[in-house]
Design a protein that fits this description.
With about 500 residues, the protein is of the alpha/beta class. The chain contains 19 helices and 9 strands. The protein folds into 2 domains: about 220 residues, no CATH class; about 140 residues, no CATH class.
Amino acid sequence: MNTAPASEPVAPNLPVAGPSAFLTKPLGLLGWDKLEPVLLAALATSEPLLLIGKHGTAKSFLLERLAQALGLTYRFYNASLVNYDDLVGIPVPNAQQTSLHYISTPTAIWEAEVVFIDELNRTRPDLQNKLFSIIHEKRVQGVQLEKLRYRWAAMNPPPTDDQAPGEVYLGAEPLDPALADRFGFLIEVPDWCDLSEADKNVLLTDQFRGRHEFPVNVPALVARTTATFELLCAKPPDLCGYFVALETQMRASGTRLSSRRLSMLYRTALGIHAARMTLAQEAGEGHLIPKWETTLFLAIAHGHPGLACGPIDRGTLLALHRQAWNIAGLKHGDPWKELLNIADPVERVVVASKAGFPLSETDLSSLVLEAVAAQPNRELRSALSLALYLKLRSSRKIAATAAETLASQLARVLQPAMTTHQVYGQQLNRCREVANLCSSLGDTACDRYTRNLLNAFLPDGFSDLTPAVLQAKFRELWDKFGLDHGHQLAAPSK
């Protein structure tokens, strides 16, 4: 199998902040190191930034200190409390009574260079619509905010189904998907439980050190990153294949990425790469060239709009990212390119099992094992194993390990045993259901194998699905693999 260019291993939590921390740890923020490339990229690209975290995690503190370090006029608004007049000032009609102008107040947004909107997901729907244009296009009531450079926001995690009552933030809601899609960066910030024991001890005593200062010139750091970002934008690396493959993988897993989000991810990835280069240079390790595979995962891990609606399974996201990365590295015509573009492992092995498909015995065996392992319960694993056995036994060869896996799933199906059981209650109902289904089956090869499959799980099977569902799934697999419904296939004894 051909793969994308080699790169450093990428762990699910991706601790790839760079050699040193310059923006967070010096301020007493521990556990933020791995987020520094993303934070610096947000400063360099000026894309809207959303911090997601529990109360007391220093979200507001960091953003305020960054604004101060950059010497920018800063406006803070608590979205759960603010009125629209607090944003725009007092509206006054002109002399002709044809339009309004606004008398500015100390809290008005017109002169702001940085706007920070806290508690964003507690905003009233009517105000959220008005904040939308600020975040999306730097406008209020259609008027351009000429001085506005940064749009930052923060929110508490929205409730999830598995949360204990004491962990739920009352009034916090999942962010509107259209609004979430306007943020280039969505960063989940660390909580106390995410810190090491040593970091916890340091954090407790750090409060007595007084005001902390940045060890670097933050405006210069941002300027250098911006310059590198602009060079990358002027001659962008060819990452189109990766993002096309990523969208396919994400869509197959149930996540839609809009055209806007994909374009934004491309841009923010360039920003993160520029930030990683700058941080390495600042640490005196500029000879270490950041790997694009890691940069791209940072972009999607901190640019997934679903983060504003709840936690994301980072393991699954990493698997989708690696799949897209591998696809992008394959040459046109490589059989793996077609296979890896298929997200469903069963559909993948259906294509690979076709006669004449140019795949080695070892690679086909890997796909067989992956497809069987992906099934959620033993009944479906057996159904898929049976379909694979019938498909491959005469047309394709597989490795011994794959054959043994299929055999272990099929022992009770291919070699039925005559046993006697006393059954009651639910087991009795299952036996009757299987008997009714089997009585309706004919004498084709498909029917015979279906009958054996159903009986193999009596009397104590079918814990996760019904016999009727198993029958339907097996019939579906039979058709997918193009097996013959007639009598040509040798059927096992009943």
